[in-house]
Amino acid sequence: MKRIITAVVHNRSGVLNRVTGLLSKRQFNIESISVGRTETEGVSKMTFVVDVEDERKLEQFSKQLNKQIDVIKVSDITDKQIVARELAMIKVLTTPQQRGELQAIIEPFRATVIDVSKESMTVQITGNSDKVDAMIELLRPYGLKELARTGLTAFTRGQQLHQTEVKPYSILN
Amino acid sequence: MRASTEPKPAEDKQQTIKTGADLLVEALIEQKVETIFGYPGGAVLPIYDALYRADGSFDHVLPRHEQGGIHAAEGYARVSRKPGVVIGTSGPGATNLITGIADAMMDSLPLVIFTGQVAKNVIGTDAFQESDVMGITTPITKHNYQVQDLEELPRIVNEAFHIAATGRPGPVVVDIPKDISATVFERDVKNEFHLPGYQPTVRPNPLQINKLREALIGARKPVVLTGAGILHAGGTEALKSFVSNYDLPVTSTLLGLGAFPGDHHRFLGMAGMHGTYAANMALYECDLLINIGGRFDDRLTGNLQHFAPNARIAHIDIDPAEIGKNVPTEIPIVSDARKALDKLNELEPATLDHAEWVEKLESNKQNYPLWHNESEDVILPQYLLRKVHQFTDGEAVVTTDVGQHQMWAAQYYTFNRPDRWVTSGGLGTMGFGFPAAIGAQIADKDSTVVAIVGDGGFQMTMQEMSLLQERGLPVKIIIVNNQALGMVRQWQEKFYDKRYSHSIIDTQPDFVKMAEAYGLHGYKMENIQEIDRELGDILNNDKPAVIDCRVVQQENVYPMIAPGKGSHEMIGVSKP
């Protein structure tokens, strides 16, 4: 099952290495990981998308992360109401004649063209991963020359409405 | 006349100038460090210079190989329950410490290891004696630091000791670039620490404590499993009260031996791969298993599918990540073992309805005790270990390497007191036992310390005999010499159709002469008459000794849970 986990970490040198080393040592599958600074100085936030077998593996994932001295807080936000975004840049092969056609494809996704050359153009899209996947599939037939994704970053919405299936997770029993 | 008026201030100044290394030494004094296990080298020259100037502040133990030093620090930590302090230089000095760091990590021993590093401006250039200590030690430490700025050194030292010794203990590495320890520094620096991501839970959740008590009262077949967490927490007295409050049967992990008296009538012996039949069957058949401070290691559980299949599992551990890691747990209690036991002991004692169970365990104990062959002349290793127990009244500190001799020591040297048993359990390190005994003897000068080692393992770290010679430490080294890597040989016999691939080592040094070369007394014993006649005197005098005991090579450790089998599928339970 796919889960979205966030970790607030002390921004000390080597913290990313600690976390990724730990996850590979314990054989966890990371689909994506994104890291960046937060509103607090010296504190960064990591967002992981992981594929875990079951609840117990998931619990281990959170616990092992929590055990790191530089990790301040771990949350599984999969079942919460969240805003989650990733950014992708896609360089598509295109003839000058096809540019209009591509423009029409990407427009409903609110993607933008950020670079054009003789035989390609580069599109930037922001959104949740499903949306990004969908647009990539539509562009694929034209020929993808290059593709780069940032991985998902996410946090919970300011207001949690209609929470029916929120699973609180705590290491304190 | 002029000379007497002038130079005084300069002299004062000379004394107040401090380097980073002086700050380190001050921090160590503040931590009340008494003993340092260290080996000098290029990148730690400034630190050694500061130690020279602070002469008398510490007992500095100089091993003959860094690995010996760190294993000694582990033995020291295990017996004294204080952090062992280690210093090594950069590059090979640091990499020689790796086995000990990994060993301490697996067995939760508090160590603070200072490694020298090349100067900051050449880090990353493959400089002479540079190694990526942070990269190498990150997966095998509780935490590690590289000091980037002199001002943070005292804080880091403080944090390192705090992290190493609190919560679940473990090794912490502090990597200090040479320019930082050499920098002259005049201001005072703050050393308070800031660890928002490290707040171990030490007090149990009362709801879970109540749940455990309810489970206890409803249990018909309860059993307690003791782990080393009880020893780290100093919880042996609390455990005794808890066990007697409910009249519970007790078994132990390898590392938990001594947490509960081995001669207690409710003690079933050690459980696990070479545990007793009574202990393993108790784990298999119980309906409530209370694990206190153990981590359900695979050598304990055997095949997890057959582990305690009908039991509700309660697990008290200070490390939440251990709970539910290997065995699904119904009653998780994140807590210091002693604090959890104290809480449990505050509740009204109860009489359990478990007479039938206790009787069954008792009959298992009577009908399937540990057994071994008998001999009139040649030395059987089990006999040797029983004699060691007898001659030391079961009071000695016993250290071992890994393998057959370790299992025989665990089986036959009955531990009645805590902190007497120093063994490499998790990592299973050959060459651990002898240097660990040196550290144990330094921590506990009055006790008899016996290093039970194999002939294979001893040859990995035997150069530390120099330390016995130098310090007159009365460590007794008993070489359980079967001229083989015994456990490897046993597995090859059982599971590889007797293809003894590189496990028989019949070329050996003359250990007696080797001992004499180091100025120690060496003895060779080849029959039980010599053991009976001489071993007692040797163990009870105040001189170091190397005792080469030639034992029967073909002896195997029994009983045994074969790899992949469940704890109810033991072989070699009774004498054939």
From TrEMBL, chain A:
Gene3D superfamilies: 3.30.70.260, ACT-like. Chain A, domain 2. Residues 4-79 form the ACT domain. Pathway: Amino-acid biosynthesis; L-valine biosynthesis; L-valine from pyruvate: step 1/4; Amino-acid biosynthesis; L-isoleucine biosynthesis; L-isoleucine from 2-oxobutanoate: step 1/4. The keyword Phosphoprotein does not apply. It is an enzyme of class 2 (transferase). Transmembrane segments: none annotated. Keywords: Amino-acid biosynthesis, Branched-chain amino acid biosynthesis, Transferase. It comes from the Bacteria. The keyword Protein transport does not apply. It catalyses: 2 pyruvate + H(+) = (2S)-2-acetolactate + CO2. Its EC number is 2.2.1.6. Pfam families: ACT_AHAS_ss (PF22629), ALS_ss_C (PF10369). Dimer of large and small chains. Belongs to the acetolactate synthase small subunit family. Catalyzes the conversion of 2 pyruvate molecules into acetolactate in the first common step of the biosynthetic pathway of the branched-amino acids such as leucine, isoleucine, and valine. This is Acetolactate synthase small subunit. The lineage of its organism: Bacteria, Bacillati, Bacillota, Bacilli, Bacillales.
Automatic annotation (TrEMBL), chain B:
The keyword Magnesium applies. Residues 401-549 form the Thiamine pyrophosphate enzyme TPP-binding domain. The keyword Signal does not apply. Pathway: Amino-acid biosynthesis; L-valine biosynthesis; L-valine from pyruvate: step 1/4; Amino-acid biosynthesis; L-isoleucine biosynthesis; L-isoleucine from 2-oxobutanoate: step 1/4. Residues 209-344 form the Thiamine pyrophosphate enzyme central domain. Residues 19-134 form the Thiamine pyrophosphate enzyme N-terminal TPP-binding domain. Its cofactor is Mg(2+); thiamine diphosphate. Keywords: Amino-acid biosynthesis, Branched-chain amino acid biosynthesis, Magnesium, Metal-binding, Thiamine pyrophosphate, Transferase. It catalyses: 2 pyruvate + H(+) = (2S)-2-acetolactate + CO2. InterPro entries: Acetolactate_synth_lsu (IPR012846), AHAS_TPP (IPR039368), DHS-like_NAD/FAD-binding_dom (IPR029035), THDP-binding (IPR029061), Thiamin_PyroP_enz_cen_dom (IPR012000), Thiamin_PyroP_enz_TPP-bd_dom (IPR012001), TPP_enz (IPR045229), TPP_enzyme_TPP-bd (IPR011766). Binds 1 Mg(2+) ion per subunit. It is an enzyme of class 2 (transferase). Its EC number is 2.2.1.6. It holds the Pfam family TPP_enzyme_N. Belongs to the TPP enzyme family. This is Acetolactate synthase.
